[in-house]
Amino acid sequence: MKKLLALLLTAVMVAGLFTACAKEEATGTTTDTATTDSATTADDTATTDSASTDDGKIVIGFSQIGAESGWRTAETDSVIAAADADPNIELIFSDAQQKQENQIKAIRNFIAQEVDVIALAPVVESGWETVLGEAKEAGIPVVLLDRGIVTEDESLYVTFMGSDFIVEGELAAQYIIDKFGEDAEVNIVELQGTVGASAATDRMTGFASAIAGLSGYEIIKSQTGDFTRSKGKEVMEAFLKSDGEMIDVVYAHNDDMALGAIQAIEEYGLVPGVDIIIVSIDGVVGAFEAIADGKMNCTVECTPLLGPGLMEVAQTLVDGGTVERWIKSNDRVFADEAAVEELPNRVY
Ligand code: GYE
Asked: What is 293-336 written as a DSSP string?
């Protein structure tokens, strides 16, 4: 019995040793050292080293929201590619899978690892004071990437890199106004982005303000589709069920939801892009293709190619330089024929 026990114990110890080795290898090469809990490990494969290396590299900890849309995947690719291309930069990538609590955990890990710069794509705009206060206390500059936050303490981040979502909403509305005319009666359904996200709140505000003075323009339904294609489709199905032939326009806060809505409209038996005009935001290649197919009408560009800019900003901050408070992207509108012509040039 004793012998058996001893044997068992050895077996367990050997097995333990193996796992320890495997773990070390993982953290030393490709696994993210910033997020170790099982909920967030799945996509955390972008890290190349641990932050504590003393090789003089600039270490950026990037807390990404997730992978809800084609846009976001393009942004992740852009950041990883730009970091890979810069021998002076080391990136620790952490995927929050849409949860603010995961982002807070990741930021705390970045602080513990003494990274040089924290890049945060905040899933929602409120609730960041405590953790960003901790980063400030640790002397680590925070760069907000692609979405903003709401706070009374402006010192909690150095800069916001991204688009003007209010203008994007206005531009989307303008396309519809130009198409139908100011005096028309237009019933609009709105597919909102993630509740509480700056990109959703501001796109809603910009659009609403642009149609505010036009009495025939009405948003008859507005609901979140979480910036995803599947949710966009699902919500559009419900809109069609309740309002069907009444709907003139779909305004979606991103292209993925618009593409989901297109599917719903086709399944319902109407012609997207003709019976129902579809306008959205992002400018991903799928939207350009849908416009070329005549199934969609307009997309307002919002560039996800923020990687190279982020590397520059990180370098400037580490060198003790200053950066603009808002590094604004240049967004363009692509509709109808102009979108078809632009399709071959799209890189995301
Ligand atoms: O429009 C959407 C994504 O924050 C600007 O998030 C970004 C938005 C983008 O999921 O597709």
From this structure: TTS--EEEE-----HHHHHHHHHHHHTT----SEEE----EEEH
